[in-house]
Amino acid sequence: MSERTLTIFERGAPGRRAFACPALDVPAVKPSDVLPRDLLRAREPLLPEVSEPEIVRHYVRLSKRNFDLDSGFYPLGSCTMKHNPRLHERVAALPGHARLHPLQDPERAQGALELMWRLERALAELAGLAHVSLQPSAGSQGELAGALLTRAYHAHRGEQRHKVLIPDTAHGTNPATVAMAGLQTVTVRSNSEGGVDIADLRAKADADVACLMLTNPNTLGLFDANIAEIASIVHGAGAILYYDGANLNAVMGISRPGDMGFDIVHFNLHKTFTQPHGGGGPGAGPIAVSERIEPYLMIPRVVRREDGSFDLSYDAPESIGRVRGFQGNYGTFVRAYAYIRSLGAAGLKDVSETAVLNANYLLARLARDGVAQYLPRAYGELCMHELVLSGAPLKRDLKIRTLDLAKRLLDFGFHPPTVYFPLLVEEALMLEPTETETKETLDAFADALTAILREAAEDPEIARGAPYTTPVRRLDEVAAAKQPVVREAL
Ligand SMILES: Cc1ncc(COP(=O)(O)O)c(C=O)c1O
To answer: How confident is the model over 284-310, as pLDDT tens digits?
Structure first.
């Protein structure tokens, strides 16, 4: 284990500053002169006292201790770690965007409202559903909004439906948000092809079901060819269809949830539409809905008046209200809009085709290189935007776990793929190369994986002890997740 990095509080010296203020030329005001007593702090906040070079070096040093997309291939399945074009950063940093106050009067934020309105229209077109709210700040918050909309829709019709059907391949946020909305999850089994088990769905689609939450292509990277039958079973039971569109990377300009019979879809702007993500935000999880769900959509809504100007409208008496303050993470809207406009309709379709091609190229290369002996495909011959392998033979024959393999990849300069998800695949390894990677990168990754397996066949201990070249070695990931120490005791 390398030496502990000092925290920012352990650096600097009393009185040291990173800036020099001009002398005060207005009367000084003490907080106690203007604030009510109960709002005053008991003591001054403890802040680091550091020079600017100390701050810069501290955070640059920290950033170098992590693995990032700007320095290497990051095939983290289901997370769509694609390159974030720098153009978007430039546009988002324009003062008119970056300095816009969330409480700005709509009359003086016409450009921002127009951008939001246009982004809504573009997302509506991609989803095949006419009405959009940009408000939710994460895919999971979009799901929560969708679950609340589902509840409102049924309640308005006088129906108390409390079950939500969720396939066993679903992302963990699906059941979590359903529970947060006060609804109950019912798991639907997958069939031998990795799609929804139609017989199980039919048996569970009863009069208590509010909706089916489906990801298509699902987290196995497979498009469910039975989607028309699935839609007809769910609609036949009086329930609605919710589409987890966190990852639209395989289907943009090719298929639309609205055309498949879905009433609600959420997007992850921070995945498909490029945003720096993975550090916890900011993100955006807009949702698009059909006509019958529209009355319940969140407020305020961005509207275009007859004279072509824009406003925020609160006039929706059946709306579920707000799911967050202000309008959402505006910077993510700017980046997503820049992405959509710079690519255009043909470019977005090309993104999807290339993402699918890259994933299938990797799948084929790994099969060709004999990787399949230890890491066979979990389901199907071909995949969509991501591929899922099973490390079950690796564990059985070499006593190496998928986790060991993932850690060893770090020594070869690659971020590990997603491991142990989807849950129904034993020792799952899930790779999502995305469209922004070159053939050379995919080849180098396949070569590394092949080399690691060859090395493991000779000496399994090497993989079990990996990584060796990173600032920290094997971490206790369960403790890190369950007992995080986010701040040194002062
Ligand atoms: C399939 C799927 N659904 C939902 C989500 C949740 O999105 P978020 O992390 O923005 O809450 C993710 C996130 O990775 C996902 O992959």
So the answer is: 999 999 999 999 999 999 999 999 999
Our CA dihedral for 214, 219, 222, 225, rounded to 10 degrees, sits at -10
Question: Which tokens in the block code for residue 328?
Answer: 């959402």
Q: How far apart are CA 116 and CA 123, in angstroms?
A: 10
* Tokens linked to 342: 């710079």
Could you tell me where the DSSP H helices lie in 128-194? 139-156, 173-180
Nearest-atom index, ligand 1, CA of 143: 4
Confidence band for 5, pLDDT divided at 50, 70 and 90: confident
Rg (CA), the chain: 25
Beta strand segments in 203-239, E: 209-214
Centre of ligand 1 from the C-alpha of residue 386, in Å: 15
Give ∠ CA 169-172-177 in degrees, rounded to 5. Answer: 120
Atom of ligand 1 nearest to the CA of 78: 16
Distance CA 201, CA 301 (A): 36
The protein residue whose alpha carbon is closest to atom 15 in ligand 1 is 246
How many A from CA of 140 to the centre of ligand 1? 6
Residues pairing with 431 in the sheet: 76, 387
Question: Closest ligand 1 atom, CA of 283?
Answer: 10
Tokens of 151: 């509840």
Atom of ligand 1 nearest to the CA of 268: 10
Neighbouring CB atoms inside 10 A of 83's CB total 13
Find the residues whose C-beta lies inside 6 A of ligand 1: 78-79, 138-140, 171, 173, 215, 219, 244, 246-247, 268, 283, 285
- Order the strands of the 264-267 sheet from edge to edge: 131-133, 287-289, 264-267, 240-245, 209-214, 163-167, 184-188
Return the pLDDT at 488. Answer: 59
pLDDT at 281: 63
Buried-exposed string 145-181: b where 16+ CB fall within 10 A, e elsewhere:
bbbbbbbbbbeeeeeebebbbbbbbbbebbbebbeeb
pTM above threshold 0.90: yes
